[in-house]
Amino acid sequence: VCAMSININFVRTVRKKSNHNMTKLIFKYGVLSVFLISLFFYVYTIYSGSREDSGVKEFSQDFRQWFSGKKSSFVSDNWTEKTGEVNSESCLVMEYADTDIDTTRLFPTLKFQAKWIGTKGWWNQKFEERYAKAKSNWLYNPLKVIVVPHSHNDPGWLKTYELYYHAQTSHILNNMVEKLKQHKNMTFIWTEISFFSKWWNSAHPLERKLIKKFIQEGRFEIASGGWVMTDEATVHLYSMVNQYLDGHQWVKHHLNVVPKSSWSVDPFGHGGAVPYLLSRSGIKQMVIQRIHYAWKKWLAEYKADHFQWRQSWDVRGKHDVLCHNLPYDIYSIKHSCGPFPDECLAFDFRKVTNEYSEASIRSVPITDENVKQKAETLIEQYGRTGSLFAHNVVLVPLGDDFRYDRKTEWDQQYLNYIKLFDYINSHQKELKAEVRFGTLSTYFEEVGKRMKDFPTLQGDFFPYSDIFSEGRPAYWTGYYTTRPYYKALSRELEAALRKTEILYTFAISFARRHSLNKTVQMMENYFESLVKARENMNLFQHHDAITGTSKSFVMEDYGLKMFEALQTSQKIQVEAIQTLIRKPNMVAEEQTGEQQEDNHVFLLQDFDQDAYDKLPIKLPVIVKKDLTRHIVIFNCHAQDRQHVVSFIVQTPQVDVLDSEGNRVHFQINPVWNDTIQGMIVTHSEFEVIVVADFPALSIVTFTVVHVEKDFRSHLAVIYSNNVNLKDQRPIVFQIEEVLRGDIQLENTKIKLLFDGDTGLLKAITKKENGRRILCQMKFGAYRSSPGHSGAYLFKPDSTEELDLLQGKPPRIFITSGTVLSELSVIYGSFIMFSLRIYHVAGPLSEGIQTDTIVNYPVVPNFRETELFMRFVTDIKNGPPGVVFTDQSGLHMVKRKQSPSLGIEGNYYPITAAAYIEDDVSRLNLFVSHAHGAAVWPSGILEVMLERRTMFDDVRGVGEGVVDQKRTHSKFWLLLEERGSKGVEFSRLSLLGNYLMNGLNYPPLVLVADEVDFSNMEKHVRFLNRPFPCDVFLLTLRTLSDLNYYQLPSSSALMILYRQGYSCDYYCSVAHCDLGSGGGLHKDTTFNHIKLETLVETSLTGLKSLKTLSSLNDIEISPMELRSYNMTFLQRLPTS
Fold this sequence. Notes:
Keywords: Glycosidase, Hydrolase, Membrane, Metal-binding, Transmembrane, Transmembrane helix, Zinc. By secondary structure, this protein is of the alpha+beta class. The protein is 27% helix and 28% strand.
């Protein structure tokens, strides 16, 4: 009880007058505390005397709910609340998979400074001798070469998606149809469905027919089948799955194709999430390209460029994918035929009028006179590549960026190569080689004939570094953070679209079942817009989009597309919720036999966003004596959740009631106005912050009413060193000055210590055991190396760090009330950060909510400045340092410091979480969008926040990064104590998953316009009981109709992800039942809609695996994703 009072203490030396006031305050609260504690133990004694131990736990929970001002009225009568307990007895331990290659362990041991780097290639005499030995054995193991024509089409980079399509891509696909028809043994592969679907929509029926013919003949292959060739470092799980899902659904519907192979040759490093998603989608073979130059050498040296890529937690290897790493630098013809680029240039036969390149100068057409010499030279290159593999089968890409956009190139490449092929194949006795055109499937089929057993590999290929450009290492670790505003916007869209998909599925199924024909028609009309929103989000997952590595005007185009998708999502959300909460007009139904529908829009978003590049602004809710307002909240999680909901009102004289009419626990904070004289508390706006529990997948309505009194107990107390109190109008808040000395915030779980001069965090104490860890917060910057640090690359100019806060006096504000305490610090207009703790019982009280807003001043200020946020702790995670980072939100990966590399080589991508730990503690940092995270020797957790590089880094984009925007980054800090130390696969804790999920997918908040709410349901639940709290509902999205792709079907795809949790960190999460086994709770059903069929499918829904009778049959192992095609009953049964 004492700890729930205002918990702000200033550790300082105070004057006698202050001591006197403090003594009075302590006496006053002390007497109250003694009385309340005595009352508690009196009631406890009476109550516990007639109860078993389990009853005491129930009483304690009821007491906490009473203290927070509410009962758990949202939980249904037929469901018993439980608390998720993690301990050594209840937890399922998962061990690391045993593989031949572990990239985490091996990477720091690779040779990064080898002598061959200056030559830009790793081929040496040792490889030449191996080739000679392999060639002598060609009689028994002949060389087989599959040449794969391809064209790499970026859906945005130096031009926008549309400009690329009209200028080049449409011509490539038109030419492909014509030339594959003409050249009967030529082949082609295609990856980007975003482009292919656009072309298909305008293609002639005869062209469509030919495409299907080429597919049946095996001459045209859809590789990967994703909407884009996704980035693998900065894309989060939902978006990555979504772009595969939309691509696969499209090719299945239009081409009747299920992709078998993956082609991912341009992402800047390769992550472990992609092979798992491919495996779950039915793809068991893949090709990658861009990995660290030291890995290129190592894999070639050990003949390991073919490997079974295994997940670190997949002990049995059931999700292995056969991966082929193309052994040379990039996918161009120059770098594909063999280890000598100058030789390969002679075999790029593209010659276009007024176009000059290395290849057009070097290559000459193949004639009867030179075919023998050219064929033998080419076989030498192919043979060297074949010597890298035991099977001696070679995959040779034949293409480059936007190749084959001219008809002449199709003829040039085909006619010259076919002469070479004919010569080689007709001289097999002498050359002992066979060459032909083929696809990826052709290649893997040939490999499978010769070899069955491959080495196993776990881990990933980050960071990526090249040497072929300058003959020295260049680390592609800057793009993990480049243009963070766009990365954050993408995640805002992801969260909004996920909510929209779920609500749309429930709304259209509900409307169909209840014969709401106008609503059905409206929702069907919205489906095309929903599909377009999906596509816009998918497009941004492209490896030159979310990475921030396109030209600035192209990035603006992406931003506009995402903003359009965001607005579409918000509009559909409103219509869906209005459908789901509106009560049927029973009188009209009895008279007409049909339900009356009112499609008037009465729900509004609680914020306004003028443009894609502006942060949203909260809109005030007008509450008057005669005007009651309603706040409609959607919990998009399939578990009961504790959420924070905030909104703006124009008067502090308000009360907030839940759907049962009970007062909820809330706090009223000031809204500030920044002036030249200092910060002023506005008199016309106030922030209401509510913390409440929400049932799983539910819509709950809060009522905001005007009150004349009893509102002051909800007002926060303000402490600041920069408040202008000269305004003559009365201020409702109590405002005090911050006295000198350190600052302390605390709740019942943790205690935070801040530096009183800087406002930066210094230490965290866990109150349960009194353990205190050093946790010094710092904002600093690296000075970029001009020309070597840019959109892609990260390279500091020196080891010296910039202190951007030095000499800048901070403005410090402390806001404290019964719900939360928050410290906010402003350094000029450049950076603002805040740390918040909650005083309510529940999971949120365990962590520290942290926000930063970074606003770089205009150019030329902050030239070559790369800003980071760092926490320096006494956690002993090194040396060498070890940091765990997430892999696209799927699982955590161990990162070991490579001491021989600079900081640029010790940066890794995170999209959701990172942590450091030792034998005692773990410090977690959860993030709302992608960042780069550093691996330092020991005790340091660092993420990059923003980058400005004035110069191009010579990787193709042709400009620096100077278009910074005001960016809001959201975090949670969580300090945990280790309960045991096992050898398990490292995972987030159950509590960590809880906070991460809430950060990524907050509730939807809508404000009802002035409308009669008596005709609305104030509480709608879509589940009769929650899912187990480690089973995350990734999506529930309506599928397209089988006959009319632009219309919604009666089926939806539900994708569940069972997030494994650590057994080493004991914790308990309220309203969380882990269940038993790997399924859902018994008799779990949906409310308001009814399942007709339930079929487990592959990840993207293309392959049916087994039919289930009900949700009871669902089984999911930890760390796994599972997909289910659900068909809903269309009409209520009639009597």
